[in-house]
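Homework help thread (please don't just give me the answer)

Our assignment gives two proteins as sequence + structure token strings and asks us to describe the second one. The first is just a warm-up. Here they are:
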Amino acid sequence: SEMCIRDSINAEYGGTTQCSMALVPRSGKEFSSKKYWDNFFELRQDSFEWYGEYEQMKSVWTSEVELDDKVLVVGCGNSEASGHMYDHGFHNLTNIDFVESVVQEMRHLNASREGMTWEVMDMTATSFQDREFHVVFDKGAMDALFASDSEEHTAAADRMIAEVKRVSSKYFCVTLAQQHIVDKMVESFCVEGWELSIHQLDPESFSSGSPLSPFVFVAKRLGQDEPQPLNSVTFHPAGAESDILEEAQVVDTVIGLQNLSSTRHKLAGKLSVDDMVRIELFDSGSNSDMPRYVLTVADLGREGAAGSCGVFIVPQGKQQEWQFVSDEGIRQLVDQISMTRLVVVAMQPSHSYDCLLYTSDAADEEDSVDLGGRRIIKKKKKKK
């Protein structure tokens, strides 16, 4: 999980300058360190939106929050999110951070936004009154505080969640949704008196430089007359209809989408010679828990024929042969075919397939063999 965050930060910075590399934490523990954030804001003066711009989450925000709601922004840093919210009509904003220099800077930069306040405060132990706010807005603060599932970080996350529940009735949390974060959110808010919903922000709206895209977790305190969800979460996938997930399904669903995002990011660039990506494709119309296809993607390590990408379909009955299941065997296949990128497709024996003429040994008796779009025409022997 620590590496996922570091990869995202490296991708955003580009990792090209001494200053940018100094900003990347050496370990997950540094994310919750005041000393690290003091140094971060001293070295990086401009705003840093590694969790996306306000516009990318505005539709979720405006559907959950009223213009006159009193909002507490925790771990505000030098993000421009509060300023954008204010300019869109959310004027009752209180921002807190434990780094005094960044609070002073943001107070100065936003002096013209009347009514918006900035305070130096620890978000795990605030001085606010019970239920003083309608909403707590968190854009990456929980991820920074709960950077790993260590005992120390877990205790800090529990203190923060306790404060969120004490001072407000709704928690709007923008997060990279690593597994321990998802587990903690489900554990804390799939409880009596609260309901939890999860929104996947549109991955296409984020920079292709980041391997992960954020989610929004919205936890709401229920009124006495509101029905209590029974061990379930409302999930809103990007570009699709919402669904009700059981608690046990939440982690697999969210982590699966993050793995997909990470894989897409990886495949958008060049794979190292010793690196391969395996993708399992399942048949939504089948009851089988086995994938229908297993794809292995490997790069040649040099330019192949016109920067080409090829698809090799493993002949039926040979899926378990060394050539097609071992990394070394597939690497030899990539070298032999000599395309820049090769996708090796194995069809699993637990499924049935139509049109196997060119993907089985039966092709030996035919006039041609199709190797993933490359049809090899066999010369017929002349009769004597």
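The one we have to describe:
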Amino acid sequence: MVEGDGCHRVAAEHRKSLVGKKMKATSPNGKFKAGAQAIGKAGGVLLKIEVHGKNMFYFFGSKGGKPKLVVHIHFGMAGAFAVYKGDEPEVTANTRLRLETADSAGPHFVAHLSAMTVVASSPEKLYVPLVAKLGPDPLREDADVERIVAGCAGAKKSIGQLLMDQSFSAGVGNIYRTETLYEAGIHPNQPANTLTRPEVLKLWNVIMKQMQAGFKTGSIWGYKSGAACYGRTKSACGGKVKSWSVAGRTVYACDQRQKLSAARASTSAKLRRSGTSHLGEMTSAVKAENKKRKTGEGLAVQHVALKDDATRAATLASKKRPASAQQAK
């Protein structure tokens, strides 16, 4: 699954390479033919990109005008959005949208999109109502923590269930659920409405910290060497890890660090800043992918949607490398 930080990484790169450019749009597999035609009719200029959790929105119109069309993208389990400046590879059966810069000035780019959801409509009909259903995104500057506090207070679910609800918080996936609850010391089965305000703020801080690290590094483990609790039998602190299904996905918890309790914490810490604009340059897609290969993380642990010329070259090189050399690495 492409998590929220992965979507924000795609948007950050595309804002630099594609926003402001007029695009010629086609649908190679024919599944987005009407949408591709609508991009041209709207003016063809990519005016801006917005991300809310795992949902991406590309706004098109005429240069200097207001957006007339928005394309909603949800990658699902294994989508990708590649931008090529060099040689363009062949499209695949999954390529729903191909964009090509139509401007005579500036560098020439071609983009290939494969995703579970690709739909187009006016911003009023598509973007506004969909975003209204989503919770705060920790990687957006406008994330409202008070909605998180209120959401916990009024919930009848466990915090483990609530974190998988995108109407509560947009962008947190299954791995982040386990890792953030572990770091915050909160049991997944703890009723959300029993958490104190300081506990909720602490959890939100941890969520922002881990997802900002994921955005910056291109790895779901951020600056850690690997999982602290997810997928393990013994956690990073040495406690026994148990796993079970919550909201249709496997969650993990440490019996030493995370305990169900009626006595709740009352101390609070300074709230972190949400968003990504203050984080500086993020690790490039190819550096992030190469690190995954070297550390054995695997590209499927957190599916990587951001692709470009460099990631394509690295993938081709890894396929040509002898099996013995790959194992030695």
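TA reply:
I won't write it for you, but here's a hint about the kind of observation we're looking for: The chain is about 30% helix and 20% strand.
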